């Protein structure tokens, strides 16, 4: 149901790859809520073609940009402001990639060139996006910038590998840039820590099925879906969250506050017998 929560707002949405992408759902919901926005992804993702379908459905265009490339980001902000007719009100950073995870390198046998790439793509790109926007004065006051993260930043999930380092850095960048952007321009910066979700990036993690089931069994509300994550993003983009900044916010069905659930206790007791 639409409340036109984002009517009059202009945005940039990074990271829609296919229909399962969290950014895809955010784009669909933002459109329903009255926002205008551009879509962006790295040029290689463009070739898969699906994002153009989303652009048609949202009556917008795709501007290719590698989020680690400052020239690409500069063009992206310039072209977005021109296309949308003014400064930007919201940005979604929904980007993650680890060559170490992709190539199944064990955490105790990381390739450091890969690690550098993981950090650049999955974390430093968040700083690059914000620095580009900041230096161009491309955001409206009370604008909102949101990144997506995972609880492996706080707790160890062995197969998440070096993405844990990336997420810890991402969350730290949200706090640090959130301070500077808040002081200078009243722009808000937050991260949403999302439940395991069946997407291309998510299911690339070794043993994702078990990961998903474990979180679902531990969380009193069950795992949060990509659709619910999109709703939370919309709230953060909207004026309803004007005083929320520099926060890491859990959209996880309660997972982060639970020690153990009855179901898991039962499973472990049964296994013992
Ligand atoms: P996804 O695979 O649909 O999205 C990842 C996106 O990153 C893709 O669109 C990909 O093209 C883009 N990307 C990769 N390198 C890039 C670059 N250099 N420049 C620009 N874009 C680039 O997967 P998903 O799950 O929707 O991921 C979105 C975000 O949500 C990521 O930050 C991910 O870590 C986070 N997240 C995902 C969870 C999950 O279980 N799926 C759980 C918690 C957080």
Task: Summarize the model shown.
By secondary structure, the chain is an alpha/beta fold. It contains eleven helices and six strands.
Structure report:
The protein is an alpha/beta fold and 273 residues long. It has a single domain (10-272), classed as NAD(P)-binding Rossmann-like Domain (Rossmann fold). It has helices at 22-32, 43-46, 50-57, 70-84, 99-102, 112-136, 163-185, 200-203, 208-218, 226-237, 262-272; strands spanning 10-14, 36-40, 88-93, 139-149, 188-194, 248-251. A 6-stranded parallel β-sheet has the order 2-1-3-4-5-6, sandwiched between helices. Helix 6 packs parallel to helix 7 (163-185). The longest helix is centred in the middle third of the chain and has 25 residues, at 112-136. The mean pLDDT is 96. Residues 14-15, 17, 21-23, 41-42, 45, 66-68, 94-97, 121, 148-150, 194, 196-197, 199-202 line the site of 1,4-dihydronicotinamide adenine dinucleotide.
């Amino acid at each position: 149901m639409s409340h036109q929560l984002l009517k009059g707002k202009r945005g940039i949405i990074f990271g829609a790859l296919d229909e399962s992408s969290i950014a895809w759902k955010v784009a669909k919901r933002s459109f329903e809520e009255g926002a205008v926005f551009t879509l962006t992804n790295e040029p290689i993702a463009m070739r898969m073609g699906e994002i153009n379908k989303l652009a048609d459905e949202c009556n917008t265009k795709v501007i290719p940009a590698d989020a680690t490339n400052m020239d690409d980001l500069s063009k992206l902000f310039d072209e977005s402001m021109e296309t949308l007719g003014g400064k930007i009100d919201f940005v979604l950073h929904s980007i993650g990639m680890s060559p170490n995870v992709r190539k199944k390198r064990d955490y105790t046998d990381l390739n450091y060139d890969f690690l550098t790439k993981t950090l650049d793509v999955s974390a430093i790109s968040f700083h690059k996006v914000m620095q580009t926007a900041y230096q161009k004065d491309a955001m409206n006051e009370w604008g909102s910038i949101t990144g997506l993260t995972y609880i492996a930043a706080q707790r160890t999930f062995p197969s998440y590998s070096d993405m844990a380092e990336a997420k810890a850095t991402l969350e730290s960048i949200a706090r640090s840039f959130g301070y500077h952007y808040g002081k200078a321009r009243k722009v808000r910066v937050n991260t949403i820590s999302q439940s395991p979700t069946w997407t291309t990036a998510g299911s690339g993690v070794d043993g994702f099925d078990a990961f998903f089931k474990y979180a679902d069994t531990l969380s009193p509300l069950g795992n949060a879906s990509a659709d619910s994550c999109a709703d939370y993003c919309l709230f953060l983009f909207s004026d309803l969250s004007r005083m929320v900044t520099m926060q890491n916010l859990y959209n996880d069905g309660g997972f982060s506050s639970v020690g153990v659930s009855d179901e898991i206790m039962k499973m472990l007791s049964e296994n013992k017998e």
